[in-house]
């Protein structure tokens, strides 16, 4: 009897310890989660690049629309970070340093294949990049690029993926018949000017900047390489989608508002971009006249070409898993808008 009572006392004491510990742990967890959500709601960080493809982000910022739409939901501060290309931008998102990215669809494919928890919720634009050849070099067709040194964005980006696929489709082996050098836009323009490369494949406004400086000329627009191809998108972290869908809904609505505004106020959009990048507004306006890009927000338009990027990257060995539409897109926020 003494031994049984001792065991009962011990069991009761153990139960109390477990319950108390569970309460304490639960309390700490709830408090931490609450603090984390409050932090997430109080600020958001956007990533973007120095390209006219992503002017909608700058327009909404310049007009005060991000604060107008998100502050009622608790987001009191909008931060942003500028990236030269999509590859470092996706590295930052993988590290949890940005919540929303204006970025190319191809870097999204590479990042999601490597574990990024995020979904495309809207399109930013389609097409809009050019192959620019150094002045003095002839060009009548893709064969004239054989043997040349071409600078473009790093592997896994829209430009690198498109260029390699287009060269191969025209009988030019991108590994043996040309030299493709990964560079950001500034370094690529400098390399072309210095004669270190023969051509570049870059998004606007860089092709127009090069032509205005008298360094080279556009010979192929990306819409000729793949008509209506996906380019930049609005990418939102999975955690934001799950924990704050109301915030994501406002992000999509604000992006659509800015996209529609830019299409009706192109000169104003050019001025917004020029001010952000400290550029000559006349060059930006010329770029927007020269390019073959279109600002759109509907993500349905780019599903097929984005899945094609995923297949091309898989075939090229850039990624080691095949991705589906569900892996890359969340259409629910765009479809919930009152269009």
From TrEMBL:
Top-level taxon of origin: Archaea
Subcellular localization, as worded in the UniProt entry: Endomembrane system
UniProtKB keywords: Cell inner membrane, Cell membrane, Membrane, Transport
GO cellular component term, pick one: endomembrane system
Entry annotated with the keyword Membrane: yes
Gene3D superfamilies xref list: Periplasmic binding protein-like II
Record-level Gene Ontology MF annotations: ATPase-coupled transmembrane transporter activity
Main location: membrane
Name this polypeptide is given: Sulfonate ABC transporter substrate-binding protein
Organism: Methanolobus chelungpuianus
Lineage of source species: Archaea, Methanobacteriati, Methanobacteriota, Stenosarchaea group, Methanomicrobia
